[in-house]
């Protein structure tokens, strides 16, 4: 028999995802499978990482139950639970079906029972369909797709489909109504081309365990309605829609995407990875370019807080450009945007990198995103606990409609309109280096009439920094809160605006400092200093040219704080828990004395005070 027994033995040891298809083969958009084992009510990013395909008993077999060799016009079948009719292979029961051969008009239909586990072992298969899907799994307990060791396998559907009356499925190159798993032995590859729509579509869940999976899709690359779990392998996706997504929107236990490992590369016209509920990254190497050429544009004028719909990208609402006083930071190039480069405010397409309807949690991995819209976006909360993120966005680097929490990891935003944004932003640790055309860190909202920076419920909006190393280069406000700011730890450096319409610090209610260190450099027109302090704060006005080395020295001449500013500035603010009340501190630029200030608890030095700015950035600070 034509099979790879080493691969079969390896499959025997694997645990595959099972939750079952519907008993009646229901073709509606509602999946009737139960959630994967371990799913809990009220799925969050925290528990989604532990929810995936449930393990079944290992498949017990020593050899394939059937082989199917395709050639143009016929299929040679040897084994049980399978039959051939013309160019169609029909599988009627459980088993391991070794599939090989080449056919320009092929179809595999699976019509087993709810208790049948079906494995398709691709052993050098090149199958194209002239009408519809190549694989149509109508009913089975689970479907396992396996590439044999050192084999290359190809599946491609037709550009046009003919559906039965009142039907619109199957509508993907690989279509399944049950939980589906892909895996491979060393060197095994499966290449899927979805010429009609999605390349892979499971009405239940889809899991990748290992192997190489190459996908090109006219719409979405991988869709798992209930969930998508990536635990290993190498996945390359080029999609004219979304790269990877889970779509279940009526059950909070479903609709999640979890990345546990593997190497994932996505180029998508729309979102890179989208979860209707929770998106969790535990590990893996992820590279995403979302939005095509528009991802290379300089900035976007879109507003996340205006009528956002998770199914779309740009909100409905106001258009327009930033105020004339807007000035991008060094390193940004103002270029005219062509129609293909601009993400307009009324666009119905979403072009985000990582997106979730409820929450995003990043616990590890290496993530690189270039996106026309937000690089990381959640309609709820975002938590970054660990991992490395390198983000380039034409809108927000990381955006949360609710709370953005950073507890660790390394976050670099090389381009953004606003780098970090949420109704509230909490930074407790991590290495953060961001560049923004407008605000660096912004706490704002737009669902309560808080327009033009005037908020009825400004207590909702706050920025809290208790740890980590934070560097901000912003063309607008460096740190902007429509409510409060609190600094209790960490090291913060802000290179703020050079124009007088914004400030390195901008807040509406209060800025309390009880620990940590901060250097805030920017223009003087809207400069604001902290208002409530338990440690000294030095604030002066002085004209300092770009690329100057700025130092604060104590009375003995020792350097207490220092930085090199990439931009000119005229307002300089320093606070440190190392400052001693009553001691004189001298501020230098390129060894030229700017001022000597006697430190005291509170703000001293004659520069910006707590009342120095207008306060409140409104919708993402676009009007502040």
Percent of residues in helices: under 10%
Residue stretches low in confidence (pLDDT < 50, at least 5 long) are 1-62, 300-347, 446-455, 613-624
Major beta-sheet overview: 24 strands, parallel, barrel
How many angstroms does the end-to-end distance come to?
A: 73 Å
* Beta-strand share of residues: over 45%
- Give the strand tally: 50
Q: Estimate the mean pLDDT confidence.
A: 83
* Discrete helix count: 2
Quaternary organization: single chain
Backbone CA Rg: 28 Å
From the spread of the alpha carbons, the general shape counts as elongated
**In terms of structural class, how would the helical and strand content be classed?**
mainly beta
State the gist of this model:
This protein has a 24-stranded parallel β-barrel. Strands 46-45-48-49 form a 4-stranded antiparallel sheet, with no helix packed on it. It is built from 2 helices and 50 strands. Helix content is 2%, strand content 45%.
